[in-house]
Amino acid sequence: MSAPSLTTEMSKTDTLNPAFPNADSRLARRFAALKAADRAALVTYVMAGDPDPSASRDLLARLPAAGADIIELGMPFSDPMADGVAIQRAGQRALANGQTLALTLEMVRDFRQRDDDTPIVLMGYLNPLQRFGEDRFLQAAAEAGVDGLILVDLPPEHGAALTARARDLGLARIPLVAPTTPPGRLPALLAQGDGFVYRIAFNGVTGSRRLDIAAELDSALDALKRQSPLPVAVGFGVRDGDTAAAIARIADAVVVGSALVERLAAAGVDAALELTRELAESIQGARRGKS
C-alpha cells in the first residue's frame, strides 16, 4: 500500500505558526534590508524555459543586476487556471521546448552557483508536483536553493501537511489572498503562510488591466497587515512604473509578471531587462518625500 501524499495526509495540527521560523532565510534577510532602506521589493515573475531554455537561463541570471529583489520562477503547466493569456502562452512555449520540473530545478541550481543572495520562489500548480512526487520535489527544491513556493490551487484544508514538510526543509509556503477571501477563512490561509503574503490586487487573471489599483487597496492592506506579521506583496495588473510606484508606497513588495513576459516575448531578453530596470527605478523612488 502506497504512502499517502502530503496533500491528503492529515496534519497533527490544523493551525501553524504564521511567523516563518527561519529568520536567517534569504527572504527574511531581503525584506529586513528593504525595510531598513524604506523601500518595497520588486518581485519579477518569469516562466522557466520561456521563450527557450538558453534565453530563460540568461534572463534569470541577469535579473538581480537589473533590479529584481526577489524572483518568482514559473513552473510550466498545461492548465494554468489563474493565468492570463501572456503567461499561458509562455507556459505553452516552455512546454513545447521540453521544459520539465526537473529542468526548472536545475535552473535554480545553476543560478545558485553565481548568486547565493537573491531569493527564488517557485510559482505554479499542484499537478506537476504530484507527478514528480511531492516529497521528492520538496527535497529537491530545498537542495537546489529554492526559498519558497506559491501553489495556486492548494487550499489550506489540504495543505497543512505539505506546509509542515516544506518548513522542515526551510521552504516558505507563500499564501495567496484574494479580494473575495472571506474574513473567516483568512486565518487558515495566514497560518500556513511563510516568507510573505501575496495579495491579489483584484478579481481576475494575471495580466488584466485595472486603473487605480493602489487606491482600491490601501485600506485592505492595512487590515491584512494587522492580521499577519509577514510582509505583503501585491500582484496582478501591475504593468508600468507609475502603477508599481503607487503600490510600492503602501505594500512591502510589488509583483510584475505579465508585462515582463510580454516584453520578453516581443523583444527579447535585453528588452525585458530594460523594463525591469525601469520598474526598479520607479519602486526605489516611490517613498522619497512621502509624508
Description:
The protein is an alpha/beta fold and 291 residues long. The chain has a single domain (26-284), classed as TIM Barrel. Helix content is 47%, strand content 13%. The protein has 12 helices and 9 strands. The chain has helices spanning 26-36, 53-66, 85-96, 101-114, 126-132, 134-144, 156-168, 186-191, 213-227, 241-248, 258-267, 269-284, and strands spanning 41-47, 70-74, 120-124, 148-151, 172-173, 176-177, 197-200, 232-235, 253-256. A 9-stranded parallel β-sheet has the order 5-4-3-2-1-9-8-7-6. Strand 8 (232-235), helix 10 (241-248) and strand 9 form a beta-alpha-beta unit. Helix 11 packs antiparallel against helix 12. Mean pLDDT is 88; it is low at 1-21 and 204-208.
Jot down its keywords:
291 residues; single chain; 9 strands; alpha/beta; globular; TIM Barrel; nine-stranded parallel β-sheet
Provide a quick synopsis of the model.
By secondary structure, the protein is of the alpha/beta class. It has helices at residues 26-36, 53-66, 85-96, 101-114, 126-132, 134-144, 156-168, 186-191, 213-227, 241-248, 258-267, 269-284, and strands spanning 41-47, 70-74, 120-124, 148-151, 172-173, 176-177, 197-200, 232-235, 253-256. It is built from 12 helices and 9 strands.
